[in-house]
Input
Amino acid sequence: MKNTTLLKGLGILLIITHNFMHWLPDCVAENEYTFSTERIDLLCSYLAQGGPHVLLNILSHFGHYGVAIFLFVSGYGLSKKYESSAIVKRGLREDVSFLCCHAVKLWKLMVPALLLFVVIEMMQGTWNRPMSRLFPLLGFYSNMQPHRDLILGPWWWFGLMMQFYILWRLLIYRRGRAVLYTTMGVCMAAVIIVAWLERGSLESTKTLTCYLHYNFPPSMLAFGLGVADARYGLGWLHRWWSPLVGLAVVLLGSFNAGMWTISSTGALMVALAFVAKEDEEIRFGRVLYVNMRMVLVFLGSISAWLFALHPVVREYTIGLAKRGNDGLLYLSILIYLAASILLAWVAANVVKDKKNKVSTQ
Output
């Protein structure tokens, strides 16, 4: 599969818009960590009435599926990068080296963003946390704490990715279909069983279902499909009918807790429709489609920094959106998106320039 950068762009666009919209008082919240039929009922009622903020509500409720896209691309990329070589070095030293390397990659994104937020808060006199509360986030174990302290919500992703680096390297790397599909099956069975046992309280953030959704089991399906597609080529993910089936899965998962546990697969099937062959572009209108792809590829190229930095920008732009004025609402969205993209672009280019200088020395 080509165009993983484009998929990253689509994923990050969904994530950054969702993470802003779901804080707005006029938008219906998502079913991401918890499940509530009341939320989808509210969305349906809102859509039936015709607005006024239809797109904002759709992004608020469904935009979190951008996480599944990132997980798919991560699994795909790991397998393509590390399993394509015939040379296999396995052992404790190699495993530790791999995990340390990827921990450093996450820190290089997390630490600058975290420092930026702490410095701004301290300058404003609004920092009210002991510095010790940063350790769980920096140590990648904040997700596993019963009472998560994620500083700024979206940064839970860093802990999740570290879990997948460990899982992939120690269990999945260069092992066959049986190990991969068994791992995916066990994780999904655990999530479905827990959701069934807690079916009367899935709206609560204190359930095991909610706790699991901050950790790897519910996300293993999307990640595992990325690994499987890289290794074996999952043709059914790329058929013309895939986005239609995927959309049906997402919609059914909005009303049913059982389907909800696998709805990320449906979101992936819809997302992969954006990765079309060049000779299929004309179906979408060539100019519009090509321009859309260019935007998504650009966002994908800065997606790592965009993810790390957008929570900081959101913290200082969301207030404008909550003043009850539609003009200010959309102005705040434009400022948030523009500032996030500009900050991420600058950070990505600074890092790129440093790498180029090091390579030429």
User: Anything to note?
Assistant: Residues 113 and 309 are 5 Å apart (CA to CA).
